[in-house]
Write a structure and sequence with these properties.
Elements lengths: L2 E5 L8 E5 L9 E10 L2 H8 L9 E2 L3 E9 L11 E5 L9 E5 L3 E3 L6 H21 L7 E4 L5 H12 L3 E6 L2 H9 L4 E4 L5 H8 L5 E6 L6 H6 L1 E9 L21 E3 L3 H4 L3 H16 L8 E5 L3 H10 L5 E5 L1
Parallel strand pairs: 9-10, 9-12, 10-11, 12-13, 13-14, 15-16
Antiparallel strand pairs: 1-2, 1-4, 3-5, 3-7, 3-16, 5-6, 6-8
Enzyme class: oxidoreductase
Organism: Caballeronia udeis
Protein name: NADPH2:quinone reductase
Amino acid sequence: MPFAIVMHAPGGPDVLKFEEVSVPLPQSHEVVVCHAAIGVNFHDVYVRSGAYKTLELPGVLGIEAAGVVEAVGADVTDFRPGDRVAYVTKSYGAYAEKRVIGQESLVLLPPNVSDEVAAAIFMKGLTAQVLIEQVYRVKKGDWVLVHAAAGGVGLLLCQWARHLGARVIGTVGTPRKAEAALAAGCESVILYREEDFIARVLDITAGEGVQVAYDSVGKDTFFGSLKCLAPCGHLANFGQASGAVEPFEVSQLFPKSNSLSRPNVMEYLRTPTKLREAAASLFDALSANIIQAGEIQSISLRDAAQAHTELESRERTASLVLKP
């Protein structure tokens, strides 16, 4: 029988257990995928900790992976055994050697995208694509603020926005991460632990503020991000690494006619067509060297707890993948 990482209760990384599981036969619209590499991201941490109560327990974490189709259901027409595929899905279960999944969640992998790159970048890359091409379409000359600029999504946002001609300001926690953000295309980098990022952003932009702020930090930066916006600027709050944002009066957006979104990336990818269009845009950006996957660290599936510990440390810049 195959193995998976099973979570019986929320908690720290030690709740992730390597156990035997059964894999059912695929239904008519489903395929069996043998995983070659599995993505690890902060969504998994939120679910494991109990911040997101979206996994029925006991259950298997993980929403993205890359691998090979082993078998298909009777009505599957888009895929066949042997196809290399990647997926991101609302249906948990990626922390496993193999799984059954609906064909609507899959995309074919181009030959020039490896399993490791696909698993490391797929969710992060689709998030960047949605933020930069759909939530707010970045334009040449825009000032763009990216919090956690040396994080997985942050690095992609910086590279992509710079390619589009934007002027990118990044916030980071350490000088080492500042180097990574600068290499990814930031024009200016702010060490938020040492500097007032609001004052620095307004100084860098000559008091104008930014056209868009991409904020995955949440509680600690949200209201500061609002203050950094230019007139008619947009704040995209797409994460809460520091905790949930406190309620606030929507009238605070009125003085500068600002706008706010809390994008759920999965809603932007809610149909096979939308998913595959976004994936094609992402793979094109990779092929054109507009964005790069960067350093990837592989960890054995059985050591998923170690991967979560490293992810939560915020000290690494490499993407993490689990290898069955």
